[in-house]
Write a structure and sequence with these properties.
By secondary structure, the chain is α+β, with helices and mostly antiparallel strands. It folds into two domains: about 15-75, no CATH class; about 80-170, no CATH class. About 20% of the residues lie in helices and about 25% in strands. The chain has four helices and seven strands. It has helices spanning about 50-55, 85-95, 105-115, 155-165, and strands at about 5-10, 30-35, 40-50, 65-70, 120-125, 130-135, 145-150. Strands 1-7-6-5 form a four-stranded antiparallel sheet. It has a three-stranded antiparallel sheet with strand order 3-2-4. A hairpin with a 4-residue loop joins strand 2 and strand 3 (about 40-50). Helix 2 packs antiparallel against helix 3 and helix 3 packs across helix 4 (about 155-165). The termini are far apart.
């Protein structure tokens, strides 16, 4: 049974959730995650600073929020050739599938991508099931919520090796034709030699 503790949340919005004013590149905005009662997940909302500061005290309380600079999502008309699954793609897939047995892998991938400066940890929230770490993709604004599985130090290296093996391209399996059977040569009778 998958635990509802890791989610992939949509990209950042291009406009304020309250005023609907479009954001400009480099503008300071507030991103907030709110509990989504319909999906038992989270909904992302982005706000301009003024709208965030003017929210009423009684308004919905976010699960997490942080300040960031708005960067438009890059538009790539030509997708890169598919050669192997990248760490980003694998994290996205595993978070969307949300299988309990991939919890350690998701966490290691998130930490790897954070070290590569692709993700940044924006918040961590303690819950009854453990600590949830919230990561934002620096370029696209995608948000990932990943449970920190508190991996024992003696297991980290093994899990890292498994993740690296998953990311490494597997050599193509070639169907090699069967080796031709050696033709049996008829044995020639040994010639009898007579001593002279």
């Amino acid at each position: 049974m998958a635990l509802p503790e890791s989610w992939h949340v949509r990209n950042r919005s291009r406009e304020c959730s309250i005023t609907h004013t479009p954001f400009t590149e480099g503008q300071q905005i507030v991103t907030a995650l709110f509990p989504d009662t319909e999906s038992s997940g989270y909904v992302r909302k982005d706000f301009c600073e003024n709208a965030w500061n003017e929210r009423e005290e009684e308004s919905e309380k976010p699960f997490s929020h942080w300040r960031t600079k708005f960067q438009p999502t890059p538009v790539n008309d030509t997708p890169p050739p598919v050669t192997k699954q990248s760490a980003e793609d694998m994290l996205r897939t595993l978070v969307e599938e949300d299988q309990e047995h991939t919890e350690n892998t998701r966490y290691i991938l998130a930490v790897m991508l954070e070290r590569q400066k692709l993700l940044r940890e924006t918040d961590s929230q303690p819950t009854s099931g453990g600590t949830l770490r919230i990561y934002e993709h620096r370029k696209t604004g995608e948000v990932y919520i990943v449970k920190d599985p508190n991996i024992p130090l003696d297991q980290v290296e093994t899990i890292q090796e498994e993740v690296i093996a998953m990311l490494s391209p597997k050599p193509p399996v070639e169907d090699s034709p069967p080796e031709p059977a050696e033709e049996e040569k008829p044995q020639q009778p040994e010639s009898e030699t007579t001593p002279e």
